[in-house]
Amino acid sequence: MSLRLIVADDAVLLREGLVGLLRRVGHEVVASVGDADALQAAVRAERPDLVVTDVRMPPTLTDDGLRAAVRLREELPGLPVLVLSQYVERSYALGLLDSGGGAAVGYLLKERVGAVADFMGAVDRIAAGGTVVDPEVIQQLVRLRQDPLERLSPREREVLGLIAEGHSNSTVAARLCVSDAAVNKHIGNIFSKLDLPTNTEGHRRVLAVLAFLRS
Length: 215
Description:
Elements: E1 4-8, H1 12-24, E2 28-33, H2 36-46, E3 50-54, H3 64-75, E4 81-85, H4 90-98, E5 105-109, H5 116-127, E6 131-133, H6 135-142, H7 154-164, H8 169-176, H9 180-193, H10 204-214
Parallel strand pairs: 1-2, 1-3, 3-4, 4-5, 5-6
Helix pairs in contact: 2-3, 3-4, 7-9, 8-9
């Protein structure tokens, strides 16, 4: 499905690289901007299907892009947003992921863009109302709550990371070369150790993790 997108990043080479990548797979980039003010103006003018934005942009070169994304989702409920960053900006990350009930939103580290298929899959899932969160983002945010991930085994951490990326149980099983039954058991253990509900599916499993972080 072709999407109308806006790309925001003050690094020209990365921004143009993203624009070229998105266009090559059939999407339409209706605006390409380099600062948070231009991002907000473009979104209001174009009403895109999805926004891809950096965290650190002018005018202050701090977290302007992330704060703009939070404001836009408050102003335009349901606006799909994918934030890309070189680091985890904790102060606004949970606000972004909590906006709009946590639907149609993602936060990925820029290194994930190198995995083109995974990046495009994230774009499609977010545009369709899903939630995609980088495993490293999850881990850093969880550390704010005295690192409950310490309760998990190394294998359970792997499974949680793949869940956070939006993968189905069967895909997790294939990637880890284990049975579906083993994945189901790991997921049950994860939810139990993190005091999360066990009856969630799809991107709602990521939302369950975010609910734990907010509680």
